[in-house]
Write a structure and sequence with these properties.
Length: 142
């Protein structure tokens, strides 16, 4: 993704590497940190993610989840990541579903807003703000 966005990329294998990478990039306008996906059922991996977040210092953390996730699974995801200080959601795969109610369930259950959605595989072309009016029309009119 770094090449697609024409931005420098660093690999951090742990909290210390991440803290050093952030220190090197501290004069940049923005630093984007992408972590590997973690199963909400893997408490060890969630703990490792908490250590990485702690190493970032002061930053905004966003939870990325698929819009195609079933309601019972999204509840598990929100419960698993409740210990992390995330402020907004990024919902992916909006182009892969015709049922948008789960987007609102994420917001209601978490009490946090949606930052953006993805509507395809191309970055950054398919990273979009949420068309709330359009989705409400889809939910209400099926």
């Amino acid at each position: 993704f770094g090449e697609l966005l024409s931005v420098p990329v660093e690999v951090a294998l742990g909290p210390d590497d991440l803290a050093r990478a952030i220190e090197r990039a501290k004069r940049k306008d923005q630093i984007l940190i992408d972590t590997a996906g973690r199963s909400p059922r893997d408490s060890t991996a969630i703990g490792q993610l908490q250590a990485l977040v702690a190493a970032t210092g002061e930053c905004e953390v966003m939870l990325v989840a698929a819009a195609t996730t079933r309601a019972v699974d999204s509840s598990d995801i929100l419960e698993a990541y409740a210990g992390l200080p995330w402020s907004r959601l990024i919902l992916t795969k909006l182009d892969e579903t015709r049922v948008f109610g789960e987007l609102f369930n994420y917001v209601v259950r978490s009490g946090r807003p949606i930052a953006c959605v993805t509507t395809g595989q191309s970055v950054p072309e398919h990273l979009e703000s949420l068309d709330v009016a359009g989705i409400l029309r889809s939910v209400l009119h099926g």
